[in-house]
Design goal:
Length: about 170
């Protein structure tokens, strides 16, 4: 199996920036190890999405995309001028920690099945997205500012990965 034949899809690129892939790296004709990998990946994504059901995240429900969602943000999310409250800070911390756990799983999968450049693009995107959550937690940015920046980051990462894929077919 050649690494260079595996491509990160734009759907995955969008999804991973939020922490989990809702449209995982399915390739046509996956058999054997590919099917086992797809099953493991799907289980990881289901666990990431299940983290949203924790009541501790209730204070920020509807203010940030759910873990595992690839967007888009609602108008309310993009236009929210509020800073995080004392009640919301613990929820943002848990959200970020769970997101980072999902990101670690995605990166582990990417290291096994994608090119080093795809891994580097993912790592850069995750790092930038996590920094935004830290700024939200510390009341340095509003929810709207963070959501707008996360949307821009997803679009830029999507474009970078698409450029990389189109220039490196084999």
């Amino acid at each position: 199996m050649q690494l260079t034949q595996l491509r990160l899809t734009p759907v995955l690129a969008l999804a991973v920036l939020v922490g989990c892939a809702s449209g995982p790296l399915h390739r046509q004709g996956e058999t054997g190890d590919g099917q086992a990998n797809a099953a493991a990946r799907d289980a990881m994504m289901a666990a990431c999405k299940a983290a949203n059901d924790d009541p501790i995240l209730a204070p920020i429900k509807g203010k940030l995309l759910p873990i595992g969602s690839s967007g888009p943000e609602t108008f309310e999310m993009l236009s929210n001028l509020a800073y995080a409250t004392e009640e919301e800070r613990p929820a943002i911390k848990v959200y970020a920690e769970r997101l980072m756990g999902c990101q670690a799983g995605i990166l582990e999968n990417a290291r096994q099945h994608l090119t080093p450049m795809h891994v580097a693009l993912l790592e850069g995107s995750f790092s930038a997205a996590n920094a935004l959550l830290a700024q939200l937690h510390n009341s340095q940015m509003t929810y709207g500012e963070v959501n707008q920046a996360r949307a821009r980051l997803r679009n830029e990462s999507d474009a970078a990965i698409a450029r990389w894929n189109s220039g490196h077919h084999h």
